[in-house]
Amino acid sequence: MGAQKNRLLTAWLALAAFATLAIACGSGSEQRSSSEPASSRPPARARQAADEGPPQDGGILRFGIDADSDGYNPVANNFALAGNLVASAIFEPLVVVNADRRLDPYLAESVTPNHEGTVWTIKARPGIKFHDGEPFNADAIKINIEQRVKSALSAVALEPVERVEKVDDMTVAVHMKRPWFGYDYTLAAQGGYMTSPKALLTPEGTLNPDFSKKPVGTGPFRFESWQPGNTVTVRKFDGYWQTGKPHLDGIDFVILPDSQSRARALEAGDVDAMVTEYPSDVKRFRDNPSYTQIEDVAGDEMVIMLNEGRPPFDNLNARLALAYATDKRAVIDGAFEGLPAPADQPFTESERWFVSDPGALPHDPQKAAEALERYKQETGEPTLRFELQGRPDQAAMMSILEQQWRELGIEVQITTLEQARYITNVVFGRYQAGIFRNFGYVHPDSNYIFWHSSTAKGVENLSINFTQTRVPELDAALDAARSSNDDALRKEQYAIVVRELNRTVPYIFLMHNVWAIVAKGEVHGLAAIQEVGFGRPDAKTWWNDLWLAPQ
Q1: Which of 30, 50, 217, 443 could link 90 by a cystine bridge, Cβ 3.0 to 4.6 Å?
Q2: How buried is residue 36: exposed, middle or buried, by Cβ count under 10 Å (0-12/13-18/19+)?
């Protein structure tokens, strides 16, 4: 029984990660708008392609990443940002998010909904083959989607999908149980990575367990080897469908979890480029002329999650007291070298879903004291006491928060846990307050499973609604937005969502995280990455554009 529970937990934890990677809101009928900003990012320091001359072919790029994955099967394995970087070199999505945060066709020639949003028609682009020579066609799309609907990794997120119908050799129709105009955005990330059915499945039709270690896609690079905790090696696919690409002969993804070790490896020439969110490195390399650095601040947010399913945060005044008592700027200055921008919602200012009047609660010790007094009167408790959980690398910010809250007489116990155990606690509701990163999505419907009451299963039950939030007004706005193909209506509904979150306080939004890619001078093509961003969980098709040249 214990083994079965562990397998189920692993699947649901992976589902939580998948939800952060795959689900978002939009429709295939949306058009690119050049008047909208691409994202909230600092100006690019990347050399522009016009200044670099024509790309040169050849060379192996050594790229430092911050984590390994439990495997590289997009149907079954958990991809954080590092895993997604690797997977994007091997696999490609049906559609891709462009610089305006809308969709362009990619492996699919088109993805379109019917008028009601209950049937999505997907047409495969002809002439594409997987790395094992298998054709990319309707059968491949159908099998990939059906496997995701059945997979524990994605079954809850894809619950609206009823069945997949093969229309002809290059076309499938995905039938929904109810309208879902956001389905196409699931196909721009891990949910849309196409795998070779021959390699993915056993002859009996079950998932091939070896696929995680030997992935097969359509991407510019084919998988060659994986040394867990060390290096993932991919090499140029000679049968790639995009003429003249990729420029690189291959990529060695060097796994360096320690941020300082990653920076030293770059300086020593052991890697040619790296990804980082470590504030000291972001600031240090930003002004170093020997390196090119690009930054993305339109990814995820750091929040304090408050568990409404158990005391003390089942009480609104307890949540209000903590929100008013939190000085975000002091946390950012004290633990993050002043680098990130404070957040009062899950959107940055230049995102089209940004809410100018979000109803955010300011840092106000007087209002915090008043809410704390109401909490004590309502509960009979002498003060507000709770445990704050987080990872060991978050200890500094947790200490700053504890000091802020203690000034009002709030008593806090800080507990740091390694990530796997901490996520277990979060999913089962075994926490009172916790530090978390989330909401790095292209469209707000990605948050449906985190905020809708249908996924709040109660403490000690597996829940993707981690805070056990149950707000009728929130549900109504999320449902209305998901059921509509009207962008203006959805924007109105998501504004309601943001205000309800700030009114009911399941989260205290702290900051917009900053990600950077730092590269040596011989790495070119980075302007393509800066244009579309890289801190989000959607597919990274820009590996095609990178090239190496002597400095």
Answers
A1: 217
A2: middle
Residue 203: other Cβ atoms inside 10 A? 7
Give me 174's structure tokens. 């995905």
How many Å apart are CA 458 and CA 420, to the nearest integer?
Answer: 20
Distance (Å, rounded) from C-alpha 382 to C-alpha 405?
15
Q: Which residues have a Cβ under 8 Å from the Cβ of 331 and sit 6 or more positions away?
A: 397, 400, 401, 510, 511
pLDDT digits (tens, 9 = 90+) for 429-453: 999 999 999 998 888 888 898 999 9
Q: How far apart are CA 295 and CA 286, in angstroms?
A: 9
- The H or E element containing residue 416 is strand 411-416
Is the CB of residue 301 less than 8 Å from the CB of residue 295?
A: no
What is residue 313's predicted lDDT score, i.e. its pLDDT? 98
Return the amino acid letter for 343. A
Q: Tell how strand 515-520 and strand 507-512 pair up.
A: unpaired
Taking a C-beta distance cutoff of 8 angstroms, is the pair 375, 315 a contact? Answer: yes
Q: Encode 36-70 in three state secondary structure.
A: CCCCCCCCCCCCCHHHHCCCCCCCEEEEEECCCCC
Tell me the DSSP string of 351-378: STT--SS--PPP--HHHHHHHHHHHHHH
CB-CB contact of 539 with 88 (8 Å): yes
Helix (H, G, I), strand (E, B) or coil at 310: coil
Question: How much is the average pLDDT of 116-141?
Answer: 98
Determine the Cα–Cα distance for residues 164 and 178; give it in Å rounded to an integer. 14
Handedness of CA 202, 206, 212, 218 (dihedral sign): positive
For the packed helices 316-325 and 395-406, what is the interaxial angle rounded to 10 degrees? 110
DSSP 8-class letter at 535: S
CA distances from 463 to 5, 156, 426, 432, 499 (A): 14, 10, 9, 15, 23
What domains lie within the chain, and their CATH numbers?
A: 2-27+45-297+514-548 (3.40.190.10), 301-512 (3.10.105.10)
Query: pLDDT value at position 551?
Result: 64
Distance CA 250, CA 372 (A): 58
Query: Where do the DSSP E strands lie in 114-246?
Result: 119-124, 161-168, 171-176, 221-227, 231-236
pTM: 0.88
- Calculated CA dihedral for residues 386, 391, 393, 397, nearest 10 degrees: -20
Check residue 51 and give its pLDDT. Answer: 66
The pLDDT tens digits of the residues spanning 134-150 come to: 999 999 999 999 999 99
CA 50 to chain centre: 31
Q: At what angle do helices 472-482 and 487-504 cross, to 10 degrees?
A: 160
Tell me the one-letter amino acid at 337.
E
Q: Which residues contact residue 481 at a Cβ distance below 8 angstroms, ignoring those fewer than 6 apart?
A: 25, 444, 445, 489, 490, 493, 494, 497
